[in-house]
Specification:
With 379 residues, chain A is of the alpha+beta class. Chain B folds into three domains: 167 residues, 2-Layer Sandwich (Alpha-Beta Plaits), CATH 3.30.70.270; 53 residues, DNA polymerase, domain 1, CATH 1.10.150; 158 residues, Dna Ligase, domain 1, CATH 3.30.1490.100. The chains are: A alpha+beta (379), B alpha+beta (419).
């Protein structure tokens, strides 16, 4: 194998895929990057830890001799990214089993795995395909993935649900049982039947690193166990989370008793201030209490350790039932407000009683919903 | 100034109290033992006549009977022992407010500040012994020293009804020749480790280098070294200052071996009801559930799991315990005893994050129901209300873990921390 490529092109490719390689030593080849070159398809780099797999390719290489090698992902990536920006040449020496890297008048080499058996990414037989613009997929994941649980004894709550309806509706949902983020989008095509799949949070974060704001289409193919996200020159395969996602539609409340409109920036600032209050007791949960009375909204944060914050919210519009107190986890609330800050000046908060779930929305956009369940307090 | 610390140990406490109430057995070998019928049959305490035949605490009743066929076995009467324990504490309270109970029959007293009023430590110790004998009819051994560890050692040296004084001047003669196993926290396995490096007596521990002991025993090594040299400075807790509760649990050796999951389910419900009731008594909710299983061959194992919400609801605790059991137990042997423990406690007044997929109103109703059951049971007795699941088995139904097992283990170091 012998090829030449611009250092910064190679570095940006390895930067995308090296994290898919395994950082555990159980199966040595999984810590590797598979580099393959041939004159027709150019350079292809593959990495997988069997949970997630990525493949990137580039055509702008000069191939002198086709072939493939397996190198340690982390060593290779760290080495390539530190090289000077210039055209570099990589040559595999069969006798020493080393990959020589020639940059200017300097050289280095990287050890390779001999006689390796690298697994194929299981991407055959994937028929169900949907296509959505990159920017939409980016928005969908950015607005939902954070709401999934980091750990939960019910695995499905650690993932992000893709609920695809046959009429072309796509719903992306994530919940850790305390809050739920819901994003809907109408695709241009219809599919044969309703399908659902749940991707791990890590997969969502890896795709987010790749996506940009363009309308370039991104394709999604899936079968029972795996999903593949791909576009020209990039492919990400991921294991799906097994299990039945609960019927989320049922827990999205249909009717509300109180409607509150606030400036997003005002609410954001209050919550950031409230977040400086440490959580008391062993739960360490930071919380705020909202009091709605006399057409006024008060937000209170209290900490035995630190002190108290009592805010009267300016420029607020309240409709419906008054005289109620309701408490929320400060950070869960703030997560939603931060999402809203990117798109809307106003935020609408709908309440359904002291113990019922609340809804946070951009009043001008019904496509995104954030459900937040209150805290049960002793007072 | 050196502290003056007493350690009072009521001699053969359970057996002495029993003999007090049964004049007819006073001159016989007597042991207090678990209920033989219900199978928790071990010797809990014995009097001097029984001790002379070689019977040991913790021995199974039939073994003890083999050593001493004339042995009289009486069932334990914890409420009575508690009463006597409180009587002793009332006597201690006349001399100091720094009283730290260690089990029902032992207590440390810090009388440093009381000496100007009542005389020397030895004098107070003798007076306490006299009063216990005259007012309660049982005897006590008292150790007098300048730290808690030596005071406890002292009370073990001469029995019954004696005072032993250990001072900074005489401890090398009195304490150091004693076997290492007499020191608090030197159990069987530590003793073995010590012996393997030639450390036999307490003096050997004292003279070894703390760094070497740390190497062999970990951080306990240094603690034992400071104990052996009398450097223990842990304070005697004030009366009424209770140790912080870390977890609440109940366990039971069942009247018959458990063979099926349905049996286990019943027992887990019985235990969980008691755990939940005690959590509510103390104003706690638990976030984790631990189970502890001992099979017929006395092999034990434990496992734990996290609850979705902090809870003091017995059905939530029981179902979690059952789920942990099902996930971990393979039924190789029938089960002899089971324990359920709620850990990771939070106060019941803590805020609780409601779950989107649970009905919190139903949980509130459930909590109210259980509080009502608590008050029914405190008025009309534990067995006045029972779960229907328990009606399947009369033997198991008779168990009342909450009232039958109220002895809590006590740690020397508060909050489980090393000094």
């Amino acid at each position: 194998m012998n090829f030449s490529i611009e250092q910064k092109d190679l570095a940006s490719l390895t930067n995308l895929v090296y994290r898919a390689a395994s950082n555990k030593n159980a199966i040595p080849v999984l810590a590797g990057l598979l580099l393959s070159v041939d004159p027709e398809s150019g350079l292809t780099i593959t990495a997988t830890d069997m949970e997630i797999g990525m493949r990137v390719s580039a055509k702008n290489v000069d191939v002198t001799e086709p072939g493939s090698v397996l190198v340690n992902a982390l060593y290779f990536h760290n080495f390539i990214k530190s090289l000077p920006a210039m055209r570099i040449n990589l040559q595999y020496d069969k006798e020493t089993a080393k990959l020589n890297v020639i940059y200017g008048r300097s050289t280095g080499f990287i050890n390779t795995y001999r006689d390796f058996e690298y697994p194929n990414l299981p991407i055959d037989k994937m028929e169900d395909r949907i296509t959505i613009p990159q920017a939409v997929l980016k928005e969908a994941l950015k607005k939902t993935a954070f709401a999934a649980a980091v750990t939960h004894f019910r695995q499905v709550f650690t993932g992000i649900l893709f609920d695809v309806k046959s009429n072309g509706e796509l719903k992306v949902v994530a919940s850790d049982t305390h809050r739920l983020a819901y994003f809907s989008y109408e695709m241009e095509q219809a599919i044969s039947e309703d399908t659902k799949f749940i991707i791990p949070q890590r997969t969502a974060n890896e795709i987010l690193r790749v996506l940009d704001e363009s309308d370039e289409p991104f394709k999604i193919a899936f079968n029972e166990n795996n999903v593949v996200f791909y576009r020209e020159g990039f492919l990400l395969m991921s294991r799906l989370i097994e299990g039945q996602y609960p019927v989320y539609e049922q827990v999205i409340p249909q009717s509300f008793s109180t409607f509150i409109n606030i400036k997003t920036s005002t609410l954001g600032e209050i919550l950031e201030r409230a977040r400086t209050m440490p959580g008391d007791d062993s739960l360490k949960m930071q919380y705020i209490q909202l009091t709605v009375a006399n057409n006024e909204l008060r937000i209170n944060a209290y900490s035995e350790l630190m002190g108290e914050l009592d805010e009267r919210v300016e420029e607020v519009d309240i409709e419906g039932e008054q005289d109620q107190k309701i408490s929320f986890n400060t950070n869960y609330f703030l997560d939603a407000v931060r999402v809203m800050q990117t798109e809307s000046e106003d935020i609408q908060l709908k309440l359904s009683g002291t113990l019922g779930p609340a809804m946070i929305q951009n009043p001008a956009n019904e496509k995104y919903i954030y459900i937040l369940v209150p805290l049960r307090t002793s007072n | 100034m050196d502290r003056v610390i007493l350690h009072s140990d009521l001699n053969n406490f359970y057996a002495s109290v029993e003999c007090l109430y049964r004049p007819e057995i006073r001159d016989k070998p007597v042991a207090v033992g678990g209920d033989q019928e219900a199978r928790h049959g071990i010797i809990l305490a014995k009097n001097y006549l029984a001790k002379a035949t070689g019977i040991q605490t913790g021995e199974v009743i039939w073994q003890a009977k083999r050593k001493c066929p004339a042995l009289v076995i009486v069932p334990p009467n914890y409420p009575l022992y508690m009463r006597y324990s409180h009587l002793a504490r009332d006597i201690y309270a006349d001399y100091t407010d720094q009283i730290e109970p260690f089990g029902l029959d032992e207590a440390w007293l810090d009388v440093t500040g009381s000496c100007p009023l009542f005389g020397t430590g030895t004098h107070i110790a003798d007076e306490i012994r006299e009063r216990i004998k005259a007012e309660m009819g049982v005897t006590a051994s008292v150790g007098v020293s300048y730290n808690k560890i030596f005071a406890k050692l002292g009370s073990d040296l001469k029995k019954p009804d004696a005072t032993t004084v250990i001072t900074p001047e005489n401890y090398k003669h009195v304490v150091w020749p004693l076997p290492a196993g007499d020191l608090l926290y030197v159990g069987r396995s530590t003793n073995k480790k010590l012996a393997s490096c030639g450390i036999i007596g307490i003096g050997d521990i004292a003279k070894a280098s703390p760094a070497y002991l740390r190497l062999r025993l970990g951080k306990w090594g240094e603690v034992l070294w400071s104990f052996a040299n009398g450097y223990d400075s842990s304070p005697v807790a004030r009366a009424g200052e209770e140790s912080v509760i870390k977890s609440i649990g109940n366990s039971i050796t069942t009247p018959r071996d458990l063979e099926t999951e349905e049996d286990v389910r019943m027992i887990l419900y019985i235990l969980s009801e008691s755990v939940a009731a005690r959590l509510r008594d103390h104003g706690f909710k638990c976030r984790t559930v631990h189970i502890h299983i001992r099979d017929k061959d006395l092999f034990t194992f434990g496992a734990q799991g996290k609850l979705a919400q902090p809870s003091a609801i017995s059905s939530e605790i029981a179902e979690k315990a059952l789920a942990i059991f099902q996930a971990n137990y393979t039924w190789e042997k029938p089960i002899r005893s089971i324990g359920v423990r709620g850990g990771d406690l939070v106060t019941a007044a803590s805020n609780i994050q409601i779950s989107l997929f649970d009905d919190e109103n139903r949980r509130i109703k459930q909590e109210n129901l259980e509080v009502t059951l608590d008050s029914l049971r405190s008025r009309f007795g534990h067995h006045s209300v029972q779960r229907a699941i328990l009606l399947q088995d009369n033997d198991l139904m008779s168990i009342n873990p909450k009232d039958d097992h109220v002895i809590h283990p006590i740690a020397y170091f508060k909050e489980g921390r090393l000094p």
